[in-house]
Design a protein that fits this description.
Blueprint (H helix, E strand, L loop, with lengths): L1 E2 L1 E4 L1 H5 L9 H14 L3 E5 L5 H13 L4 E7 L2 H11 L6 E7 L2 H8 L3 H16 L4 E7 L6 H14 L3 E6 L6 H14 L7 E6 L6 H10 L4 E4 L13 H10 L1 H4 L1 E2 L7 H12 L20 H9 L27 H10 L6 H17 L5 H12 L9 E8 L7 E7 L5 E7 L3 H13 L3 E11 L6 E10 L2 E9 L2 H28 L1
The chain binds 3-methyl-2-oxobutanoic acid and zinc ion (ZN).
Amino acid sequence: MRKIEIFDTTLRDGEQSAGINLNTAEKLEIAKQLERFGASIIEAGFPASSPGDFEAVQRIAGTVKNSIVTGLARAIKKDIDITWDALKKAEQPHIHVFLATSPIHMQYKLNKTPDQVVEAAVEAVKYAKNTFPLVQWSAEDAFRSDREFLVRIINEVIKAGATTINIPDTVGYASPAEYGALFKFLRENVTGSDKVNFSAHCHDDLGMAVANSIAAIENGANQVEGTINGIGERAGNAALEEIAVAMHIRKDIYGIETGINLQEIKRTSQLVSKLTGVVIQPNKAIVGKNAFAHESGIHQDGMLKNPETYEIITPALIGESAVPLVLGKHSGRHAFKDRAETMGFDLSDDKINRAFAEFKKLADRKKEITEEDLLTLLTDQQIQHEEIPVYELKSVQVQYGTENIPTATVQVIQPDGEEVTVASTGSGSVEAIFNTLELLINSKVEILDYRVTSVGKGRDALGEAVVNLTYNDQKVTGRDAAQDVLEASAKAYLNTINRQIIQSSLRVKELIS
Ligand code: KIV
Ligand code: ZN
């Protein structure tokens, strides 16, 4: 079977989505999971864009071994040097250099003539090739570029040493037939096109990103780029889990092997959703909550008689297990640690102890602990930043009655270690909590978005809250889970503030060192 390389850009193009801000610990967790998922290449960030991105790319490159790790760079020496510093210890250093090639981008954004663009692209690829064995060059807005110009510039960057040529549909404008035809044309007209990889990179503005990527595969692309859950700029990127499952289920027509470990899809999708705070729409193909739900009586009847009447994919294929965990309130620390290790967590003794304490509390209140609950508890511990003191919620109490003004009383340990109790009112319970916490942090906060979802099924499911707010003029997203949604909301609010505190403190440390 023909092999297609899967290039994951969840941590770069995905992270560029409005409202997403992952810290290094979270990016590292996602990268480790992407490695288990089987991505051939992980684009870990844009090292020259910020010290935070640099640190994340460097740490991911030092950790991930089974996937190639890459970083994005503009076609300028400074970016390439910084990217090399971040990636030089990677198993197979790979850089992704981009430069726009469409008339509108060259004229208005770059203010360069086509000749100057060719010169800059060639110079950048040659410079990158001095250090990087693997150089991917992207023609930004390739789909809206002049085809003859594309052939000219690609010929030149291949001569300069590019090993992969990426043809992005940056604005999500292409139709499958047109995008496929472009790949066919380039494969036929570029000199030495059989010596390099051709990559597809599609955005979903017209809802055609996955279809366009598949059309590219059918016409000569041997790499596809995308993100988990399709997150990304504007309407997002092609959803990799959809491409991988489509290739698997319809191998009869495509004959393609992706190397993706389908069993890791559910977990990867959940982790990305949890850490980015981007909720998956219920009817999303493959990973939506309802992707395998059969509501109508006729469908249910058919399913009972023969599941194949309405089911082309089973939940088991993507690693969604219906079997509850065998762990419960009588399980010991040893069994808990064992399970955490089987799930791929490598936590310090302190973190395991804290996660185990949380697990015991939950097991006392919840009938069945699911794999999803455990994933939530363990991920929360994994990404804790221990060295920087932050706010910690001790308790929250809300008085609510349909005829009363809701009042919240919150007990918090402040970053300086002092324990304080604050109370305030609001027009509802959640507003009362948020108003109280705003008094505590003594700063103007604007809530931009707030959502609560359940982790798994059942009336005793954990509630997970996501809060997106502005604090100190910065947009931040935070999240946390608890069995009670009000407690989850208070913890998510504080998590948002804490993330800002950690980020500022790391920035100060960087400036000092
Ligand atoms: O969409 C795009 O063109 C990109 C490039 C940087 C590859 O993300
Ligand atoms: Zn993109």
